[in-house]
Design goal:
globular; 36% helix; 12 strands; three-stranded antiparallel beta sheet; seven-stranded mixed beta sheet; alpha/beta
Length: 490
């Protein structure tokens, strides 16, 4: 069954079909791919889009991207985006941050778009007779946390409350969960509605969600997603609610429980449904970026939580191929790339292990997407490579190392770095067996091979003899491009 259809009304589906028909008519003259880029906070969405565009516009090294490396891609340029009501992805500022200031750009906190037009020569003899072609790539950047909200459309307030409270009571949740649960447990859902109390409870719930996101916990299953990214809705009633122990489906009018339920339903109608209808349901292809290393660093509980969150995210898509006629009214995501980011924090010998771990964690969701007809690929990548590889000595051992400049304030082995000093260190080995990621360090690993990850500054770009700065270095960005749009440039 198509999960997406369960999340929208017939009226919503009709609006989606009408919009799709109009866009398909335009595609006949101007072929377009709408590429969704998502991932949980700090997974690298902004950096991925910036590096993708920078490499295509400035002649990057992309050997695996065949239409580009064989010279059939003749140019790429930015054009105004099609959706006037959606903020533009701030590409120029992000490039400046990476290249000139050598700092990572700000994380995605809202939806944004960018249009890239790629000029190319077709590999087909028949198409060559009609001259050069263009492919319009509309890149849609949105927080993965918003996808975690989509299952809320199928749940009432009582069901969501029960699940959220049970989740907060799990072992390993931060102290903020205890503070929220204690206060929420002291109130009566059947008591009178109280705005001040609702705001207090919502603030405690938000603090709990924020604490879950901290590096030492690295937890991921945190709906409602807009509580940590409120934007223009900050302080609105649609974001001033929380789960309550003992909440019931039909709370009496005028009670706190009814007040919370009403605001929960407003959140779904004001925030979640428009995102699904106006943006999410219009995607053709998707890359989901995953910071598995941060979860691995935090331990098995964080890894299990990441697995659950990413399974929810992948379960929200409408995967599969459509017929030519069916595609006039309905979009399906026919290719999904799952990118294990920050591969430059590991020696290349561990990249296959990282891919296997992610494949193990997401196996059921990947299988469902493939059964529906979508192609799914997992790749360890670094959109911007911040390190290089070397060797460090540990007694008589020679260990493969990572060499880079830690961000200012990073602490490693008791030393706080200034953002200027380059270091070389051995980050440890990932477990040989993917299932070990949910159990802790693989028993066959060396005792001193605990994983250690440090955040590095972006690299200093080299210059050509003419003084031109080269494009941003990467790991497997070309493989990602080949999978996502290579067939559309044939």
């Amino acid at each position: 069954m198509d999960r997406g259809l369960n999340l929208t009304s017939l009226a919503d589906e009709a609006r989606i079909a009408i919009a799709t028909l109009g866009e398909r008519a335009t595609d006949i003259v101007n072929p377009t791919v709408r590429l969704g880029v998502t991932g949980l906070a700090r997974a690298g969405k902004t950096v991925f889009i910036t590096a993708l565009v920078h490499n295509l516009v400035h002649g990057g090294r992309l050997p695996v991207f065949r239409s580009y490396s064989t010279g059939r891609v003749t140019g790429a340029r930015l054009e105004p985006q099609p959706d006037d009501a959606v903020p533009r992805f701030d590409y120029e500022d992000h490039v400046r941050a990476l290249v000139e200031e050598r700092i990572w750009p700000e994380s995605t906190r809202r939806i944004s778009e960018l249009r890239l037009v790629i000029a190319y020569e077709s590999a087909s003899f028949l198409r060559q007779r009609f001259g050069s072609g263009t492919l319009t790539l509309d890149i849609v950047d949105y927080p993965g946390e918003w996808l975690l909200d989509l299952p809320l459309l199928a749940k009432d307030y009582a069901a969501w409350s029960s699940e959220a409270v049970a989740l907060a009571r799990r072992p390993g949740r931060p102290a903020a969960a205890a503070a929220f649960l204690a206060r929420a447990g002291s109130v009566d859902p059947k008591g009178p509605e109280d705005e001040a109390l609702a705001r207090e409870l919502a603030a405690l719930f938000t603090a709990y969600l924020r604490a879950c996101r901290a590096d030492e916990h690295a937890l991921s299953t945190l709906p409602p997603g807009r509580f940590l990214m409120p934007g223009d809705l900050d302080g609105s009633p649609a974001l001033t609610f929380c789960p309550l122990p003992g909440a019931v489906a039909d709370a009496p009018a005028g009670t706190l429980g009814r007040m919370m339920a009403r605001r929960y339903e407003s959140y779904k109608s004001v925030v979640v449904k428009p995102f699904f209808r106006d943006h999410f349901a219009r995607l053709d292809r998707q890359i989901v970026l995953v910071d598995a290393l941060n979860a691995l660093n935090a331990g098995p509980a964080a890894v299990a939580d990441l697995s659950a969150a990413m399974t929810e995210i992948l379960g929200a898509y409408r995967p599969g191929a459509t017929s030519w006629l069916g595609g006039l009214l309905t979009r399906r995501i026919d290719r999904i790339l799952i990118g294990a980011t920050k591969a430059d924090h590991l020696h290349h010998a561990d990249h296959d292990r990282l891919e296997r771990i992610l494949g193990h964690l997401l196996a059921p969701a990947v299988h469902r997407a493939e059964e529906a007809g979508a192609r799914v690929e997992i790749a360890a990548l670094a959109s911007v490579r911040a390190t290089r590889e070397g060797v460090v000595s540990n007694g008589n051992q020679k260990l493969p190392s990572i060499i880079g400049t830690p961000l200012a304030g990073e602490v490693f082995n008791g030393e706080t770095y200034d953002g200027k000093t380059e270091i070389a260190f051995f980050p440890g080995d990932l477990p040989d067996k993917p299932e070990s990621a949910l159990e802790g360090v693989d028993s066959t690993s060396q005792a001193d091979a605990a994983l250690r990850f440090v955040r590095f500054r972006p690299p200093q770009l080299e210059r050509t003899a003419e003084g031109m700065k080269l494009s941003l270095p990467h790991i497997r960005l070309d493989r990602a491009l080949e999978f996502l749009i290579g067939d559309r440039l044939a």
